[in-house]
Amino acid sequence: MAEERRYRILFLGPPGSGKGTYAGSLSKRYRIPHVSTGQILREAVESGSDCGNKVAPFLERGELVPDEIMIEIFQRCLSMSDMENGFILDGFPRTLDQAKLLEALFEKMNIGFDFIFNLWMPYDEIIERALGRANCESCGKIYNMIDRPPKVDSVCDDCGGRIVRRVDDTEEMLRHRLAVYDENTAPIIEYYSNKRDGCFHNIYSGGPPEEGLDEMVDIIETSGVSIDSL
Fold it and tell me: Of the listed 5, 6, 8, 94, which one is catalytic?
């Protein structure tokens, strides 16, 4: 059964392409942790560990955490017992240097990605979708106030938390984030797509969410990758 399989999955794609939504769906389906960069950075700081203390000043100043510290954090995270049977990464790596450092870490840990899903859709569609996006400030569930609003206005369907919009979700800021993504992340797409292990897949995410999810599940289910082969 699908639930008995475990996978190591990476999501790539521009901001607003649906990485968090799809990663969350696959996490539930295959019962593997969804690891987002923001989440593990916050947890590192809250833990009060030496690693977390290194991260805190950068977050407080709104600066990027250096690659060496990020790799240290990911090594600690991926070494935890709940990661042994698979995980989903979302939000890292964001640069070619980070991708190469992550690959070196994987070689050291004797693991690798089974599936890399690169989400894509026209940028005008991303902007239109993002301008209607909101999320629960308690559990993080994502809503589209036009296509998928909560059942009760401003109240999360799952936990009852307050639904809020990001203050920086303006068209100008969204186009800026997409331009930065193009500059930093295009080399990562080329880097992973040129590998000949067959794990890289382009997924159109501009249609109904269930269509993209069905395509990913079909790729996974027909791959023959299972816990026995990891």
Answer: 94
- Angle 39-42-46 from CA coordinates, rounded to 5°: 135
The residue from 28, 162, 166, 195 that is catalytic is 166
pTM: 0.81
Joined together, the tokens standing for residue 72 give 């240290």
- Catalytic position from the list 6, 19, 129, 141: 19
Look up 6 and say whether it is catalytic.
Answer: no
In one-letter notation, the amino acid at residue 125 is: E
Could you list the mean pLDDT of each consecutive 10-residue stretch along the chain, which spans 230 residues?
68 91 92 88 86 88 88 89 90 91 94 95 90 86 83 93 84 90 89 88 93 96 59
- Could you tell me the two tokens for 81? 């017992």
Tell me if residue 177 is catalytic: yes
Domains and CATH numbers, the chain: 2-122+199-213 (3.40.50.300)
pLDDT score at 224: 64
Nearest to 14 by CA among 174, 191, 201: 174
Which of these is catalytic: 133, 148, 165, 175? 133
Residue-level pLDDT at 5:
62
What is the rounded CA–CA span in Å between residue 154 and residue 170? Answer: 20
Q: Is 19 a catalytic residue?
A: yes
Q: Please tell me the predicted confidence (pLDDT) of residue 229.
A: 40
